[in-house]
Amino acid sequence: GTVTYGAFTANHDASLPEVDNANGYPYGTLVCIDGSAYVTEESPRAVKYNVVKCFEPYAKNVLGAYAGKYDDKPNLHQVYVLGDGQILVNGENGDIKVGDFITTSSTAGIGMKATSAGTTIGFAQESYTFSSPTETKLIAVQYGIGSGGSNVLAELDS
To answer: pTM of the full predicted structure?
Structure first.
């Protein structure tokens, strides 16, 4: 027999600042670890993170893209980190092409095309031409935290 699977997306559980807990963030907002990860008594093997919107380019503490809030748990949200999904991006570093690495931008919670070495959160699965550097668009990505380092620099040299 053949086994097939649909699209796969892994997530981490996270808590937001109390001011953002009720409404959460828009889907695809990039979040960064806010100094701590911890284990809870109800899930002793699961790691839970405190997160905030990322607010600097190439943030090393990026965790993933905000996915939504659990309905039945207080201040517990999902953050997508691996697999298929979407990220909110802008044109801060120019238009995006399929395969471009995505990193955090200088706009809180928004990603951009990586154009230099640094931490990345995924790579684009669709191209998009921005009408301005501040325009925001939800684009399809393959999530995965890594370093765009040598791959980004090799692409820039070509």
So the answer is: 0.86
